Amino acid sequence: MQEFIAFNEQRAEIYWWMSSLFARELSDADLHEYHGGEMYTFLSGLGMTEELKAPVDNFRAAITKSNARSDEQLELAADFCGLFLSTPKSGALPYASMYVGKTGLLNDKPAQEMHELMASFDIAQRKEFNEPADHLAIELDFMGNLIILGNQQQTEEQREALMQSQLSFINTILLNWLPLFTKECQLRDQFGFYAAAANLLLAFCELDKKFLIGE
Predict the structure, then answer these.
(1) pLDDT tens column, 7-62
(2) Which long-range contacts (CB under 8 A, 24 or more apart) does 8-14 make?
(3) Percentage of the chain modeled with pLDDT above 70
(4) How far, in Å, CA of 211 to CA of 109, rounded?
(5) Which of 94, 105, 162, 166 is the most exposed place for a label (fewest CB within 10 A)?
(6) Is residue 69 within 8 Å of 97, Cβ to Cβ?
(7) Torsion of CA 184, 187, 191, 195, to 10 degrees
(8) Which of 145, 105, 129, 118 is nearest to 24 (CA)?
């Protein structure tokens, strides 16, 4: 049981890490960690899984390439803004409404559904992150919290119900638009750092889905 709880904690940490990556520009302190031994060890561990080896290798290559930029933090911040804080015509906006909504506008039905889902599990959005509820960072943060909520259940039936909720969330919410978002990142991100990150996230979500199914 303790191994199962620890494994779930690792899953949650990965979702939270990816949430932070798409929530804001990386700082100098963040980049120092990305080029350090702990991140190398972390990514090496992920890459030991066959399904993640190629996307992890690509992301590590993107980190190495980024380190060679003359002003890495400013240039990556510009990439972030150009992709995620611009317009649908020039960027890859990180909102589900832009890909599976009906109006092509922010705060469409996916945002409303996400807000209701969070309320149903009594999981609150971080107050300092004032974005529509279908922002990728919010959805990933929610998934991490949903995993930990499952760990806190007292009975096998309750834990299984939360696992099924996680599977449903990946299937109907994340994978409903993440492939489209990843494709847009690959088309729009000329440098490739965030495209590689999105590709790794997509691969991890697909792998996590298999875990929840029991494959």
Answers:
(1) 999 999 999 999 999 999 999 999 999 999 999 999 999 999 999 999 999 999 99
(2) 8/147, 8/148, 8/150, 8/151, 9/147, 9/148, 9/151, 11/144, 11/147, 11/208, 11/211, 12/143, 12/144, 12/145, 12/147, 12/148, 13/144, 14/46, 14/204
(3) 100
(4) 29
(5) 105
(6) no
(7) 40
(8) 129
